[in-house]
Amino acid sequence: MQSKKFQRKKEDFVCEKCGFNVKGTGYTNHCPKCLWSKHVDVNPGDRLSECGGMMEPAEIEMKEGEYVIIHRCVKCGFEKKNKAAEDDDFEEILRI
Description:
Blueprint: E1 13-14, E2 21-22, E3 37-38, E4 54-63, E5 66-73, E6 79-83, H1 90-95
Antiparallel strand pairs: 1-2, 3-4, 4-5, 5-6
């Protein structure tokens, strides 16, 4: 049996990059303050990745009028696109 492509996990966490206390919504996959993420999933929410590297917010692109953050793992190079969240620091998005 294959795992679902998306598994919602509502988890709070402390950002390993900037130390911000992040309140998870079940869709939260990066820090809203510094925009960094962590390579923990194979498919969203499954927590099956063995890498565990930090995911740098490397690029921003626009898709259908929304900002999309391209995260790149600094450990293995894996890239993942994630929609920017409403509570993301907009100044940080512009900096990228």
